[in-house]
Input
Amino acid sequence: MQWVKKDLLQYIQAKEYVDTIIVPLSPFHLSDDTDIPKSAFKGEVLSILTNEIEKELTGRIVLTPSYNYLKNADKEQEVARLNEWIEDSTKQPFSNTFFITFDSSWKKHEQSLKGTLLWFPGIQSGDLSSREMHGVIHDQVGQISELIKSYW
Output
């Protein structure tokens, strides 16, 4: 279920079956012109990937809005903020929280997160509408979905 009114109304009616939330972690910055396009591309891929995972696992998960943070932000402060998000979500019957990111800097802080960090090397560039890119994303969606299912 996505973070849209229609899906959330459905969630409220069926919350006993929805036990997992997915939080995409997406860095943002405008300070380095050479890195902006690559960063934006990774954000697009992350959005497509998490939306496809949501479709694959519809009925069991809620896909939250992306958690955007400054690329060079203090991760300890970001962990504290994320854990507040998760603390709020525990008022619902979620038993699994997954953070999905292409940003490897989260690996140093994963033990402090109140959830499971799924870090994947990001696709650096390409044509999002190409057949090859669709194949890569489809393969990743399948693998990530199986990993999430292993926690159920």
